[in-house]
Amino acid sequence: MILNSINDCCYYFQGAVNIGYVRSGENGLLIDAGIDKATIKKVLKLLKENELPVTHLFITHAHADHYGGAAYLQKTENIYTFAPAIESAILRNPILEPLYLFQGNMPLPEMRNKFLEGEPIDVDEEVAEGYLMFGEKEIKCIALPGHSINQFGLIIDEVLYAADAYFSEEQLHKHKIPFIIDAKSTLKTLKLIKRMNCVGALPGHGQYETSFQETVEANITYHLEILDSIQSMIDERKEEGISHENLVSLVCEKWSVELKNISMWMLFRTAITSYATYLVAEGKIELFLSDNKLRIKSK
User: Fold this and answer.
1) Mean pLDDT throughout 207-222?
2) SUPFAM superfamilies of this UniProt entry (predicted)?
3) 169: which DSSP letter?
């Protein structure tokens, strides 16, 4: 793990999941906490080596790879924790994530892993869009939904900490189908970020870039390609349509995704359903029931 400086107050720890850091006088704010205790221990070690304080934590969204280290942080440091509403409910009750991914059923033991369910944490303050004063720094809190229901990003000194609102192109091609819960909000968020007048942006997975707009545009194009491919699959089946389960299977096959466990299946099913839901909202496809199966056809 590497601690990178963006300017005299904005930093980030580069890793599989990036963790932001902002200093204001004797105060230090971590933006997300990594996936587990081992990750946050490395962060604390680097902060100590660089004589940087840690007093606050902002969790951008309640996915375990972004908050899994927070419980250890709260146990070992005197930390004041911010989180967006709704996301905070999951942070306090992490079983909610595998629960909703499993359609509200009690998740199987194999689904209760550190990738889907971190340890519960305390949230001291739920944030809404607007401004927070952090020491002498003004932090702009911006809702960036789509990847999760109420994900937030932060702007400090014209630097955007974008969480998982967009991904590096390398990450897009690595995961093939990005995890989203709302394709419409995802595209709206990407267009919002593209218009932002920031000196640079850091995604949750990828590199800090000053020309981040190009990467954001690549994300928009990628999502539209997935939408087009799903539309084409459904159009080809005309009146008989396609079952929801078959659609998930065919989309994974089209994008060279191999589902190796139930957790992966739940995640990809959710993302693919999000794209299909967008097409329903746009009036391009419709859902119907046949032989007690959920099916999808073109309109």
Assistant:
1) 98
2) Metallo-hydrolase/oxidoreductase (SSF56281)
3) H
- Asked if 52 contacts 21 with a C-beta cutoff of 8 angstroms, the reply is yes
Q: What is the mean pLDDT of residues 249-274?
A: 98
Q: What is the pTM of this model?
A: 0.97
Give which of 122, 100, 121 is closest to 111, Cα–Cα: 100
Q: What is the pLDDT of residues 149-201, one digit of tens each?
A: 999 999 999 999 999 999 999 999 999 999 999 999 999 999 999 999 999 99
- Strand stretches in 85-199, DSSP E: 125-127, 130-134, 137-143, 152-156, 159-163
- Cβ contacts of 248-256, under 8 Å, gap ≥ 24: 248/272, 248/273, 251/177, 251/226, 251/275, 252/177, 254/229, 255/176, 255/177, 255/226, 255/229, 256/176
What span, in angstroms and rounded, lies between the C-alpha atoms of 164 and 132?
21
Q: Which two tokens stand for residue 31?
A: 């933006």
